[in-house]
Amino acid sequence: MSAGAAASSLVRHRVEHVDTDASGIVHFSRYASLIETAALEELDRLGAGLHVFNEAGLELRVRELRITYRAAAHFRDRLAMTARIEHVGPASLRLSVQIHREQEGAEPPLLVSGALDFAVVNLGQGVPQCIPGPLKSLLTSIK
Q: What is the radius of gyration, based on Cα positions, of the chain?
């Protein structure tokens, strides 16, 4: 995995039957959930999880999801997912995620890469709101 991934949290997932289509290959739609899981785990690890945004009267709403498929994952594969902060804007946040197949020996193959863009909005009204200074400093210092 890339050097940038070393500093991020590692989330593991064993491919279950529910993740797959009739041929035992992970259905493309499942990767959106896996990407979100890895991204939110990374925010938690950094001390900037959803509860921190909620305590500041904010929430994260998905603005855009991009996924690039490179290779298939199969039933019972073990996946390793890493996420890192790519960009912190005034009222937005983007995390990139890589999903690899875990395997003994050789470099784990990259199966999927993606990016999740969040809009930061006011919890009560749902309108865009700037990330408060201390939280933004935390997010940008670890970028």
A: 16
